[in-house]
Design goal:
404 residues; alpha/beta; Rossmann fold; 2 domains; 12 helices; rod-shaped
Length: 404
């Protein structure tokens, strides 16, 4: 009797299912060709033996012939066992050794992979911890710089001089330029350490090498005055904040306390070779601003230099710095400031953008497929990225350089 093909297929499928399941500890089905299924198949084939089943050819005649030969095969198997069985035993021993070796190698690979994953996770945690410590250390250093400057200010304050107290409610309104809070501490925190500002302003020194004497308007902590002194250029400063003035004087700088417009008005015409004002003009209302520019033009000698540095409002990112200072009056776009300077009488006006952001702070490029049909999209995408970087993440400051 011949077996039904459908029954054979079901039996084979069942055997494959049992074989795959036998290689998975939890009884789930292993995928065909997976390492677990291959391992189970190897283990099944490893147990070679001479006791093979008695096979026969298909059909009635084949079964009859096979049944008739069974006694002969039985006798032959018994007679040849002494020769075949040692070979089979050696093969079984070799197969068992090979399987143990494979298992040992597989276990070592799994252990190494696990250790590598643990090491990677530990390394990632260490990197995150170090980054957090670096951020905290940077914050502590910034605070220490600020505290150091404030301590120097207190130590060098003239004897008997007390800090300014808040004005009483009935007092008249203060000048728009006069901050009603601790502006020295505010500037130390918002602008950064004095050494950092000096490095930013060092590029301006060359503009004033033949422009002595130079007046630094709103000189603050005297960063640019110190740079001019190092270059051997005669310079003095004016600032409204007494703490700033006391600090500058303690550094050996020639600084006076007072309103810049009043101070300029008291100078003789053509008595200055250069005027420098960093982060100053954005503090002035329109009236005082035009008055300051007019006086600057008249107090400079022919060929004198006026250099104004201010925040660049054409960069949206820079506006955070503008609104961080409560004493700012209005942002000044380069075209507006240039027009006001020219109206004051200056003929040669130049705008220089500076303080560009680092590359990692800009919008990243987007890669498109290299196929020709993406060329237009690629050009448009890059143009839009460049435009957004210019408008949103453009230079943080600009300098206006004018000559009389």
């Amino acid at each position: 009797m011949q077996a039904d093909p459908a029954d054979v297929d079901r039996i084979v499928s069942r055997l494959e299912f049992e074989l795959n399941r036998s290689g998975v500890p939890d009884g789930s089905v292993a995928e065909a060709g997976s390492p677990l299924a291959a391992r189970a198949e190897a283990e099944r084939l490893a147990g070679v033996t001479a006791d093979r089943p008695y096979l026969h050819k298909p059909g009635v005649l084949g079964r009859v012939r096979g049944a008739a030969l069974i006694p002969v095969k039985y006798v032959l198997r018994k007679l040849m066992r002494w020769y075949v069985e040692p070979v089979a035993a050696d093969q079984r021993a070799f197969n068992a050794s090979a399987l143990r070796l494979v298992d040992a190698v597989s276990g070592r690979i799994d252990s190494t992979a696990s250790q590598a994953a643990e090491s990677t996770a530990a390394l990632t945690r260490d990197i995150e911890r170090l980054q957090a410590e670096a951020t905290a250390q940077s914050s502590r250093l910034s605070t220490m710089d600020e505290l150091d400057e404030r301590l120097v200010r207190l130590e060098r304050r003239p004897a008997g001089t007390a800090p300014r107290a808040p004005a009483p409610a009935a007092a008249p309104a203060a000048s728009p330029d006069a901050p009603s809070f601790d502006y020295f501490a505010f500037e130390s925190r918002m602008r950064g350490p004095r050494t950092v500002i000096m490095e930013r302003q060092r590029e301006y020194v060359d503009e004033f090498r033949d422009a002595a004497p130079v007046l630094d308007v709103g000189c603050g902590r005297g960063e640019f005055l110190s740079l001019l002194g190092e270059a051997g250029i005669e310079a003095r400063g004016i600032d409204l904040d007494p703490d700033m003035v006391a600090f500058c004087r303690s550094e050996g700088l020639d600084v006076e306390e007072g309103d810049a417009i009043v101070y300029l008005d008291g100078l003789e015409e053509g008595s200055l070779g250069g005027i420098f004002a960093a982060q100053f003009v954005e503090h002035l209302q329109p009236g005082p601003l035009t008055a300051f520019l007019g006086l600057a033009e008249s107090r400079l000698r022919p060929g004198g230099v006026l250099l104004l540095e201010t925040i660049n409002p054409l960069s949206l990112f820079a506006l955070r710095n503008y609104f961080a200072d409560l004493t700012h009056a209005q942002p000044l776009i380069p075209e507006t400031l240039s027009l006001l300077v020219k109206q004051a009488g200056f003929g040669d006006v130049e705008i220089r953008f500076k303080s560009e952001l680092a590359e990692q702070q800009l919008l990243e490029p987007v890669e498109l497929p290299s196929a020709p049909q993406f060329d237009d999209a690629r050009r448009a995408l890059e143009a839009n990225r460049a435009r957004l970087n210019e408008v949103v993440f453009g230079p943080q400051d600009y300098a206006l350089v004018a000559r009389r």
